[in-house]
Each structure stands twice: as structure tokens, then as C-alpha cells.
Amino acid sequence: EADQNFLLKKHKRRLYSRMGQISSILLLLRDEGVINSEEEQEVRAQNTKQEKNRFLLDLVENKGSSAQEKLFQVLKIKDPFLVDDLEDFRLGIFRIFDPIS
What pLDDT, on a 0 to 100 scale, did the predictor assign at position 55? Predict the structure, then answer.
């Protein structure tokens, strides 16, 4: 659990810009009881994707480690490549992609 919380806090700026599928993330977080419908609407009311992500991450962070763990699990389902990239970055693993010819 500590590793997931570390990932969310350490990579918060990356998550602001890279986290996608906000609608499905919000639905899963609501189903898990992490956020309520009013909080979901507050996130949706933000103007840009980055603002929505920032608002959601701040909201979840303020709810503590259990909420952060649930967000991490939702991200693993909805955006596994993003989570893999963050974990690789934390471990100092940098992938080199060969261009497709």
C-alpha cells in the first residue's frame, strides 16, 4: 500500500497531464465509495482535462491512504500503461522504443 501512495504523491504532476478516461475513473471511484456524486460533479465541472485530474487527485489525497489505494487500483484497471510507466520511472527503468519501420 505504501508503494501505491508513494507513486501517487511522487508522480502527481505526471498524473495531472497523463491520466485519461476521467469519466470511467469517476464512476469506479463512486462505486467504490471513494467519492460521492456531489464530488463527482465538482470534478466534472472543471474546465480542462488537467484541471479535472488535479481536482480529483487533490480530493483523493485529502481522503487518506485508503482512498489513494483505491484510486491506484482503478488506474491499474483503466490505464495500466500509465501505472507501468510510473512504476518503471520509480525503479529507474527507462524504456527505449524502437520505431516501427
Answer: 95
Distance CA 16, CA 57 (A): 8
pTM for this one?
A: 0.76
Whether 25 and 75 have beta carbons less than 8 Å apart is answered as: yes
Instruction: Decide: residue 61, CB within 10 A, 0-12 exposed, 13-18 middle, 19+ buried.
Output: middle
Burial letters for 43-59: b for 16+ Cβ neighbours within 10 Å, e otherwise? beeeeeeeebbbbbbeb
- Which residue is listed with cell 487527485? 57
Q: Taken in order 53, 54, 59, 61, is the CA torsion positive or negative? A: positive
pLDDT per residue as tens digits for the range 28-80:
999 999 999 999 999 999 999 999 999 999 999 899 889 988 998 898 899 88
